[in-house]
Structures are given as structure tokens and as C-alpha cells.
Amino acid sequence: MTKKVWIIGASSGIGLELVKLWLENNFQVIASSRDIENSTKLLELKSKYLTNLELINIDVLDNQNVEKTVSKVFNIFNGLDICFYNAGVYESMSYEEWNISNFESMIDINYLGVLRVLKPLIVNLEKQKQKSNIVLNASLASCFGLPYGGAYSASKAALVNIAQSLQPELQRKNIYLQIINHGFVKTRLTAKNDFEMPQLMEVDYAAKKIFDELNKSYKFEISFPFMLSKFLRILSFLPYSWSFSITKKFLK
User: Fold this and answer.
1) CATH number at residue 76
2) pTM of the full predicted structure?
3) Three-class SS string for the chain?
4) pLDDT of 93-124, one tens digit each?
5) Cα separation, 120 vs 123, whole angstroms
6) What are the tens digits of pLDDT across the range 117-159?
7) Dist. CA 126–CA 118, nearest whole Å
8) Domains in the chain: how many in total?
9) Which residue, among 30, 23, 82, has the nearest Cα to 213 in the 3D structure?
């Protein structure tokens, strides 16, 4: 049976590549972002996949807009199997460069945006009474706060924490919540970084990895690449005196 997927944050990067992969594999896809209907690349895909791709604008900062969009999405293909939240913003800052508006933007989109979507989304998924998946694109940055990345990693750590708390509640309703913790991917966001990014991945590789992992047996967390994931996990378990002696080496 053809699967129906809705991806929020689909206009570029991993989101756009996932749209391509899903369409190539005969999924019915709803692609959303704030201005999705003006995306040249997605309009080209729409002309190729007339019946399997729909483009719907969403503003995850606006509660009323989110609620209306969720209702619209569930009517397009008569239900939903997967919702993938991929919207996100990123800024790297030393404390001298702190701009509170950047903190607010990252929390508002990376974390609160998810909450705005989840409430009406879960209500509609419950009504279906069939297995469904909610996938949240987090980050390995959620594992441990690193120099200059605190604002971003704080928003992603909050996202992971709320997902952990919701998973038991949702699974008993046949809704399977998953998080994606990936490392550095070559996108317009990481292009802002002026430091070396270990195991930097091409966007098509990261998207294919996510696509393949989502088609395997359910597990709550999907994390990659392996070495960076293990390094950050170990860092989070070390005594702070040890972990801070490591992270201070990342200072410019």
C-alpha cells in the first residue's frame, strides 16, 4: 500500500532530498515550508509527479496557521502515515556575539514549532486508528553543549527531551515517535561555520541514510555518523572535569 508522508521543512537540504527519495519510491508526499509554493525545485518535481506531490505552505510560528494546515494535510491523501519535522534554524555564536533574537528564533522554530504541530497532528493520527510515525530531525549537538553552539544544541536537547517524555504515551496509541540525531551535513546552515566539521556529510548521503533507516524496524533514535556519535556519547558520560578539558580545545 502506498505510504503517505508529510515533511515540514522541505524546500532545501535534507528535506528536499528526502522528498525526491520518497517520490522515486512511489510515496505520496506533502511538502511544506513557509513559502513552499514558490520553490523552483519543488515546482519542477510537482510537474513530474502530478498526483503524488502536493505543496502546502506552513508557518510553524503561527498556531492558527498550523492547525488549519494540519487539517488540510489530512484531507489531501485521506490520512497520513508519516510526519517528518525538518524545519530548523542555526547560528553559531561566542558569548560576546550573543543576540537574544537568535536564541528566540532557534527555540521558536527548532523546539516550539514542533509542539505547535504535534498537538493537532496527534489528534488526527489518533482518529485514524492505524500505525503511524512522527519523525523529528534533531542533532548530535543535543548530546553535549559545545563551544559556540550552545543556543542551537539547547533547542535540540529540548526537542530530544520532549520526544523521550512523549514516546511511551504515543506508542500505546499506535503512534511511533522517532528522533534523528545526525552530525554535520553540508547545507546552507553549516556553510556559516568557520571551524573544521568532523565527518562532514553530503546532503544526499545523509538523506539516503535517513530514508534507509526509516524503512527498517522501529527504533526511537537514529544516529550517525558512527564515530562522531560515539565520541559525543562518551563525552556526555565523562566527569565534567574530563569533558571540559576536551571541549576547551575547540575554542578558537
Assistant:
1) 3.40.50.720
2) 0.94
3) CCCEEEEECCCCHHHHHHHHHHHHCCCEEEEEECCHHHCHHHHHHHHHCCCCEEEEECCCCCHHHHHHHHHHHHHHCCCCCEEEECCCCCCCCCHHHCCHHHHHHHHHHHHHHHHHHHHHHHHHHHHHCCCEEEEEECCHHHCCCCCCCHHHHHHHHHHHHHHHHHHHHHHCCCEEEEEEEECCECCCCHHHCCCCCCCCECHHHHHHHHHHHHCCCCCCEEEECHHHHHHHHHHHHCCHHHHHHHHHHHCC
4) 889 998 999 999 999 999 999 999 999 999 99
5) 5
6) 999 999 999 999 899 999 999 999 999 998 888 999 999 999 9
7) 12
8) 1
9) 82
* CA-based radius of gyration for the chain: 18
Q: What is the phi/psi pair of residue 181, to 5°?
A: -110, 100
Q: Which of 19, 9, 4, 1 is nearest to 210 (CA)?
A: 19
What is the span of the domain harbouring residue 150?
4-250
Half-sphere exposure of 218 (CA within 13 A, CB side): 14
